[in-house]
C-alpha cells in the first residue's frame, strides 16, 4: 500500500507525527491545569470544603517539623480527650507530595507559601493524569486513541469536581497514581519486561500511600489475570506482569502505616493471593505440558487431580472456617457497603449519612461524564476488534467501575478515566474509518495504479502462497521439540510470503470498508460538533457547578455580588477571643476547619472513626439544656458552635443535619428515640413541632433571639415561622453570632457556686426518689 | 488395572526425569536457586508455627523475601530460556540486569520492613 513511499519519507512522516503529538500533549496539560482555575479567579486562592483543611494542617506540620516528627505525630487537639495518632491513620501520599514540592521549590529559592502549593497541587496532578491516560490508551489501542482519551480526561467534569484548584484531597494525586499504575501493568503485559514490573510495583506503592481506593487496583488486576487464564490467554508475560507485583506490592502496602498488616489479613487482599496461587498452578501445568508427551501428560493430570482434590478440600474447609468466624467475614465496613449497597443504611448510619456515599441519580451520569456516556458502548465494541490482553483489561475496568459508580456517587471519579479511555478509542476508530474513506475517495486514482502493480505481482505470489500453506501444515505436524534452526528458517520464509499476501488482503478489506464521500464528511463534521458540545458543557460545569469553595458563599442580587464569609469570620473570632486550650464542640462536619483555621481543640471531626464519641455529641445536641450542659461539661467543653442558615437561606445548616444527630445518638444511647422528634413522620420546627424538639439544645441554640432579627422568626430554609419564639437560655450564653447569623457560638455557663436551701432539699429528695426508681427503670439516661 | 496405573506412574516419573535432564545447565542452576528459596520459606513458616508470630513484620518480611526472590528467579528463567519464543530477541544480559534491579528494590523494602 505504501509502495511509492521511501523509507526516509516514512521516517520524516513519523518524526512529524511525534512532534505534533508532543505539542498536543503539552496543550492538553495546559488545558487540564487552566480549566481548574475558575475558583481561584472567581473567589480566591483558598482551600475548599472540609477534608482539605485537615490535609492542609498536616502539610503545615510536615513542612514545619520535618518528616520524622510527622511519622510520630500524636495529635491532641482533636477527638478530645482521646486524641488521634496522625502518623498511623492518615494516607501520607498527598501530604508528602505537596511537602516535597514545597521543599524543592524552596531549595530553588522560589518562596511559595504552603497554602499556594496545596491549592495548586490538584491541577498539576490532573495534567499528569491526562498524560498518563495518553500512555495507557496508547498501549491499549494506539497513539491516536491516546490523544483523544487524554483530551477527554483533561476536561471530564467528574474529575474536575474533585481536583479544582483548592480541592486539596487524596483523589487529586490518587487518580494520577491509579492511571499510571494501570499503564505500567499493561506495559509489562505487552512487553514482558521485568523492569516495567518493578516500576509497576513502585507506582502501586505510591497509590497505596495516597488513597484507600487502592483496593480497587489490587482486586481488578487479579480478576483480569483470572480472565486471561480462563479465556486461554495465559502467557509468560502474564506471569511476569502479575507475580512480582503481588509479592512486592504486598510488602510495599504493608510498609504504609495505615494499611500495615491489613495487607495480608483482610479479605480485600485475599483475591490477589488466591489468583497468585492459581497462576502458579497454571504456569506449572503449562511447563509440564511442554516437556511431556501427550499420553504422559494425561497420566500426570489424572494422578494430580485425584491427590490434589483431597488436599484442596481440606485447605478450603479450613479457610472457610477461619473466615466465617469473623462477623464481617473479614471485610471492612466500607468495602461491605460497596458490595452490598444496602449494608450501610442498615448497620452503619455514619457511612450512610455522608452525602457522597449515596447512590447517584441518573442525571448525575450526564452531568459528570456527559457525551462519554454514549461513546463508551462504541468503545467497548472497538476493544473487541481485535481483542488483546490490554483491551480486555480496558473492558473489565469499565464494567467494574460502572457497577461501583452506581453504588456511591463518590466513585463516579473512578469511572471517569475508564469512560475517557473507551470514548477515546471510539472517537479514534470513528475518525480513522471516516477520514480513511474520505482519503480513499479523494485520492482513489492513485491507489488504483498501485493495485494494478500488486496485481502483476500476484502470479508470483500464487506459488509463494502455496509454499506458505505447505509450510504452515508442516509446522503443525511437527512437535515442539524440533530443532530451533529449522523452525526459524521456516518462520522467516512464511513471514515474507505472508507479508505480500496480507497487503493484498488488507487492500481488499480497505475497499470494502470505504463509506460514501458525503456521509464521511458529514460524519466527521458531526463528531467535531459532538466534541464542541462536550467542551462547552465541561467548561460550564467547571465554572458554575464545581468551583464553589463552600467556605465562602456568594449570591447575586440587584446590588451586585454579595459575599458570605461567615465561616472564616467565626473561626477568626474563636482564634482571637478564646484561650489556646479551650475546647470547642460542634457537629463533626466542622471539626477539620475548626482545628485548621481557629486552632482550637475539638471534640469530633470529619475522620469519624469513633462512633460513640460522635453519638455523645449528637445526644447532647438532641437533649434539653441541662442534660446537654452535663454532657458537655464532662468533656471539658467551653464553647459550642452551631451553623444556622435560617436568616439567609443556607440549606446545609445544622437543623437540616439534625436527623443524623438523632439517629446516630439514638444508635448508641437508647434514651434518644427518633419518634419523639417527629410529627407525622417529619422533623418540624414550627408550631406543630413536638415538645422534645422545641426543647432540645439544637433548636434553642439555633433560634435564640431569632425573632429579634426579622420580627416574625421566619426561617427561610424551612419556609415557616418557628414554633417557640421567646425563650431564655439557662445554661449557655451567646458570645458571638456572625454577620449573616450563619455561625453562632455559645459559651457554657459555669455551675452556680451556691445551691440555695430550697433547691438543696428538693435535690436530695430527687436523688432518693431516683435511686428507688433505679430498680424499676430499665433505660436510664447515663448522663443524669 | 492397578498394575497399569503403577506402570503409568513409573513411566511418568521416568519421562519427567529424562525431559528435565535435557534442560540446559544455566536453567538448572536457576531452578536450584528457586528450590532453595522456597525451602527457606517453608523452614521459616515451620519455625513461626513452633515459636509464635510475635514480631509479625519480621516474619512477613522474611517469608515474603524468600517468595519474592523465588518469583523473580522464575521470571529470569522465563526470559533466559531459549525455547521461549516470546523472548528470543531479549539479550540475557538485559534479563539479568532487570533481575538485579528488581531484587535490589525487593531487598531494600525487606530491610526497611524487617524492624
What's the topology here?
The complex is a heterodimer of chains A (784) and B (115).
Chain A lengths: L6 H28 L3 H5 L8 H15 L1 H5 L2 E2 L8 E2 H4 L3 H15 L6 H27 L2 H13 L1 H5 L9 H21 L2 H17 L3 H17 L5 H20 L6 H4 L4 H22 L2 H32 L7 H7 L3 H5 L1 H5 L8 H7 L3 H12 L5 H19 L4 H31 L1 H34 L6 H30 L3 H29 L7 E5 L2 E5 L1 H12 L5 E3 L5 H8 L2 E2 L8 H12 L2 H10 L2 E7 L14 H11 L9 E2 L2 E2 L7 H5 L1 H7 L3 H4 L3 E2 L4 E2 L10 E6 L5 E6 L8 H20 L8
Parallel strand pairs in A: 5-6, 5-7
Antiparallel strand pairs in A: 1-2, 3-4, 7-13, 8-9, 10-11, 12-13
Chain B lengths: L1 H20 L3 H27 L4 H25 L11 H22 L2
Subunit structure (chain B): Component of the oligosaccharyltransferase (OST) complex.
Pfam family, one (chain B): DAD
Membrane topology (chain B): Multi-pass membrane protein
Could you explain how this protein is built, in words?
The complex is a heterodimer of chains A (784) and B (115). Chain A has 784 residues and is mainly alpha-helical. Chain A has a five-stranded mixed β-sheet with strand order 6-5-7-13-12, with helices on both faces. A two-stranded antiparallel ribbon of chain A has the order 1-2. A two-stranded antiparallel ribbon of chain A has the order 3-4. In chain A, helix 13 (236-255) runs antiparallel to helix 15 (270-291). The longest helix of chain A is centred in the middle third of the chain and has 34 residues, at 444-477. Residues 448-499 of chain A have low confidence and may be disordered. Chain B is an all-alpha fold and 115 residues long. Chain B is built from four helices and no strands. Chain B has helices spanning 2-21, 25-51, 56-80, 92-113. The radius of gyration of chain B is 19 Å and the shape is flat. Chains A and B meet through helix 11, helix 13, helix 15 and helix 16 of A and helix 1, helix 3 and helix 4 of B.
